[in-house]
Amino acid sequence: MPSGADPKHLSDTDEPKNSIVKIMLDEGSFLRRRPEVEHERAVALFDLLERNTFELSGEGAVPSPYHVSLALKDDRLVFVLSTPKDELIQDIVLSVRPFRSIIKDYFMICESYFDAIKTMSPTKIEAIDMGRRGLHSEGAEMLKERLSEHIVLDHDTARRLFTLLCVLHMRV
After folding, report:
1. Distance (Å, rounded) from C-alpha 79 to C-alpha 87?
2. Closest Cα partner for 50 from 70, 25, 24, 23?
3. Both ends of the chain: CA-CA distance in Å?
4. CA-to-CA distance for 108 and 130, rounded, in angstroms?
5. pLDDT, tens digit, for every residue of 81-126?
6. How far is Cα 29 from Cα 164, in angstroms, rounded to an integer?
7. Alpha-carbon torsion angle 1, 9, 80, 164, nearest 10
8. CA distance linking residue 162 with residue 7, whole number of Å
9. Phi and psi at residue 70, in whole multiples of 5°?
10. Structural domain boundaries of the chain?
11. Helix (H) or strand (E) holding 66
């Protein structure tokens, strides 16, 4: 293995995988979040860097690995993609409007879930969690579809990116 190489981002042939190796969130406008939300953010970031499928598509696409910066600007989700040497590749901008309803529903069910784990029975918690996971998957699929002309994602990567979209969307 090359000196300084990170084994989780290399295949059996020592070739870089199509992946994000660094991700940053533009969180300048946020003061604080509930501890549960901070935990979800931290887990999504960790899991995303541990394993992801993220590949620019189209002719002339720059191969991975990538550094990604995510930000919300003027009701738009902005992906700033760069090389590990911080050379700008491109910005990908998506309107957040199509996600509003699912994000709102997801926030509401998350609140119910966070409240339920304090007082409700395991059966009721599981039922709420199933609904939460279903909305989360729906949001991830929507994100995957909306990015499909620019980026190839697997389902787990889309789920983690949807979590980060929700975290960025949250105003406390």
Report:
1. 14
2. 23
3. 45
4. 14
5. 999 999 999 999 999 999 999 999 998 998 899 899 999 999 999 9
6. 15
7. -150
8. 26
9. -110, 135
10. 7-169
11. strand 66-73
